[in-house]
Specification:
Structural class: alpha/beta
Largest sheet: 8 strands, parallel, barrel
Helix content: 25-40%
Strand content: 15-25%
Shape: globular
Strand order of the largest sheet: 4-5-7-10-11-12-13-14
Bound molecules: flavin mononucleotide, iron/sulfur cluster
Number of helices: 24
Radius of gyration: 27 Å
Distance between the termini: 61 Å
Length: 717
């Protein structure tokens, strides 16, 4: 264990030497109150080993990165999930959602890659499920160039409003579509899956398009009455049951409420539908109507937010029900089951943040659950067609690419200790990962709390759940004997050279700029000293301006919108000016942009889009139209600049200039990472911290690529 006196010769540096160490107890047993979660449950002809059900979720990898996606599912199998699904899988080439990258099962040649995934899912006794999607009115077919087919001829509904319309399926094409589903079901069986989920939720799957009066305006036997609108799904399920139903369970994922009023598939009509078709699938998979509602971020949705929409449906059917709601608490899960609302606990995000959630409940390690914070960064991987990340679980989608495991670190290297400077998300994750590798770790924090930006931001409106980034790691560190935490320890290069740690990890965070430099202004903007200028840091430090406050948001993620909310709550008259066409533009990728806009409007915030700020005078800002450059004045008593951030890298550069002193000081490595290196979202910081810890003492790979990639090949015919 590290000796504090030896490491900190100057007592003034570490005023609060707090070493928080609690001995790790022996293996605990599962609490009996959670036994119900581990009961086996039948889904048609197959049986799940427990009630932990990973509902379909994409990952930005899909058909492009099948090995990465398969390894990710395999990790969930290891983590104890009873049911594991793929993401949506495009089941026929006449319906695809390019540019988004999902799975594809268009022909036999696709089977081997998909089979790899099924095999990984089943490694620890989980049931492997595949979600078959025919996207109908949601599939623009930008890749296949096929004319989209849907129940009725209407414009395609996509995030990007593609200028494409669908043609209405004629009756013979409905027959074709039924056959295509059967073909896909047979291929799924060949690939080794146990379950098929038919996608009819979130506005994305054709079953919903048939069921909803909004998208089904047919006048034949497939349109009109609910019975008619339900005909297609009845036919497809009957066909699939005939083909594979003896060995495969068939689940139907339907929207709980389309939330577009009476015209849409309302919650009341969903109930009528289920009552009329009690035994239709082997399991009802119930999910909120739009993806934005269903995967609602913690800023707008609590855990179990869909409870009221699901409650009572169980009485209408004898088939089991799975529901979702960012479930991370085993007590809430038990309540959902004991109260007869759900039979299976459906999780997408909680299974991403902690693939070992079921195992931890089973082993009585509730405090070890890494709870999802509801930030929806995982969704941005899909929305940006990149590859998903998770703020809480930096190993997500790196299981195959980098060989990272969420619970197991690589072995310790040659050196023995690390000084981590800064306890924000990057520093905390680095410390946690390093101590698991076996290094002695000292964390030096300049302030009196751990957490850095997450501790501060979690106090802003709607962001309290983000505090879990800190809480989880703080608790885990407190359980380790090889970590010491020092507060009030703002270290200089001299201090660090004096201490003699072998490795110095600088995660010193970033500071919001006060000069407006961001995207519109690449050099400091003209600001009259008579105007009161604030940055997000000022507001988080407790200085909240009042009167007429202009927020100039050239950052475009959540901060501008959150601060507008904070200021409005405090009685300011807020005008938010942004050069973007959307307030908090990048939150389109986290599915919360519309909710943010609505909330700000409800709070009386004036939203000014497509306008920048060219100058700030003593009593107003001058705003320009981004298209015409025509200017307008906005009166202001204060201006909040949500511009960009500067990495706090001074200590790093001071150390670099003294590189010749390192070896005398016993220093082998100095590394800057996280916001201090290049500011970004919190997920970027936890990833950077984790990566630092993984790579410490590793071999120099020179110019080689630091991850695996693949070019997928279709099987030979
Ligand atoms: C990254 C991500 C991708 C998703 N992709 C799908 C999908 O392919 N098919 C689907 O039916 N639902 C998808 N969903 C929705 C989830 O299945 C789930 O219904 C929703 O996230 C609510 O569950 P949760 O609160 O446990 O995350 C996705 C959710 C996430 C977070
Ligand atoms: S990225 Fe955020 S919302 Fe998604 S699983 Fe991780 S913590 Fe949860």
């Amino acid at each position: 264990m590290l000796q504090q006196g030896k490491l900190y010769p100057n007592p003034a540096i570490c005023k609060l030497p707090t070493r928080i160490t609690i001995a790790r107890g022996g293996q605990k047993l599962r609490d009996a109150r959670y036994d119900i979660l581990f009961e086996p449950m039948a889904i048609g002809p197959v049986t799940a080993k427990n009630r932990f059900y990973q509902v379909p979720h994409c990952n930005g990898g899909g058909y492009r990165d099948p090995s990465a996606a398969a390894a990710m599912r395999g990790t969930k199998a290891e983590g104890g999930w009873g049911v594991i699904f793929t993401e949506q899988c495009e089941m026929h080439h006449t319906s695809e959602i390019t540019p988004f990258i999902e799975l594809r099962l268009w022909e036999d040649q696709d089977i081997p890659q998909i089979a790899k995934m099924a095999e990984r899912m089943k490694t620890h006794g989980a049931l492997a499920g595949i979600q078959l999607a025919y996207s109908g009115i949601n599939g623009p077919n930008l890749y296949t160039k096929e004319v989209p087919l849907a129940p009725s001829a209407l414009p395609i509904r996509t995030f990007t409003n593609d200028p494409v319309q669908a043609r209405a399926l004629c009756k013979s094409e409905i027959k074709d579509l039924r056959r295509w589903f059967v073909n896909a079901a047979k291929r799924s069986k060949t690939a080794g899956f146990d379950l098929i989920c038919l996608y009819g939720a979130h506005g994305f799957g054709i079953f919903q398009h048939f069921l909803s009066r909004a998208t089904n305006q047919r006048s034949d036997e497939y349109g009109g009455s609910l019975e008619n609108r339900a005909r297609f799904v009845n036919e497809v399920i009957a066909d699939i049951r005939d083909a594979v139903g003896d060995t495969m369970g068939i689940t139907l994922r339907v929207s709980l409420d389309e939330t577009i009023g009476d015209l849409g598939f309302s919650n009341a009509e969903v109930r009528d539908f289920i009552e009329m078709n009690k035994d239709l699938p082997d399991l009802w998979d119930l999910a909120q109507g739009t993806w934005e509602d269903c995967s609602g971020p913690s800023r707008f949705k609590e855990e179990a937010a869909q409870h009221e929409l699901v409650k009572g449906i169980h009485e209408l059917t004898s088939k089991p029900i799975v529901g979702v709601g960012r479930f991370t608490s085993p007590d809430v899960m038990v309540k959902q089951i004991k109260s007869g609302v759900l039979d299976f606990i459906g999780c997408a995000r909680p299974s991403i943040a902690d693939p070992f959630l079921p195992k931890k409940v089973e082993e009585g390690r509730i405090d070890d659950i890494r709870e999802c914070i509801g930030c929806n960064i995982c969704i941005t991987g899909d929305m940006t067609m990149s590859i998903s990340r998770c703020t809480q679980n930096p190993t997500f989608m790196e299981e195959w690419r980098k060989g990272w495991h969420p619970e197991i670190m690589n072995k310790k290297g040659d050196s023995s200790n690390v000084l981590v400077v800064g306890s924000g998300p990057a520093g905390l994750e680095a410390a946690w990962a390093l101590c698991r590798r076996g290094y002695d770790v000292a964390v030096a924090e300049a302030g009196t709390d751990l957490g850095g930006r997450v501790a501060r931001e979690s106090k802003l409106p709607g962001l309290s759940a983000w505090g879990r980034v800190k809480d989880y790691r703080e608790y885990q560190l407190s359980q380790r004997a090889n970590v010491e935490t020092y507060f009030d320890s703002r270290l200089s290069a001299d201090d660090i050279l004096e201490f003699g740690f072998e490795n110095v990890a600088l995660a010193t965070g970033a500071t919001w700029r006060r000069d407006g430099v961001s995207r519109q202004h690449v050099v400091p903007m003209a600001i009259d000293p008579g105007m009161k200028i604030y940055t997000p840091d000022d507001l988080m430090d407790g200085t909240v301006p009042s009167g007429n406050v202009v927020i100039y948001d050239d950052d475009h993620y959540y901060m501008g919108g959150v601060l507008a909310e904070l200021l409005a709550q405090n009685g300011a008259r807020v005008t938010l000016i942004t050069p973007s066409a959307f307030v908090s533009d990048w939150t389109n990728n986290t599915l919360e942009q519309a909710s943010i806009h609505a909330r700000l409007v409800e709070m009386g915030v004036e939203i000014v889009l497509n306008r920048g700020v060219t100058g700030i005078s003593a009593d107003h800002v001058v705003s320009n139209c981004v298209y015409t450059d025509m200017t307008e004045k906005y009166a202001a008593d204060a201006v909040v600049l949500v511009a960009s951030r500067i990495g706090n890298d001074e200590v790093y550069h001071n150390l670099k200039t003294r590189e010749s002193d390192w070896s005398d000081a016993g220093i082998k490595s100095v590394k800057l990472f996280g916001d201090a290196e290049a500011p970004g979202p919190i997920a970027w910081s936890t990833y950077a911290g984790h990566r630092y810890a993984r790579e410490l003492d590793g071999e120099d790979i020179g110019d080689a690529l630091p991850f695996r990639r693949e070019i997928t090949e279709l099987a030979k015919e």
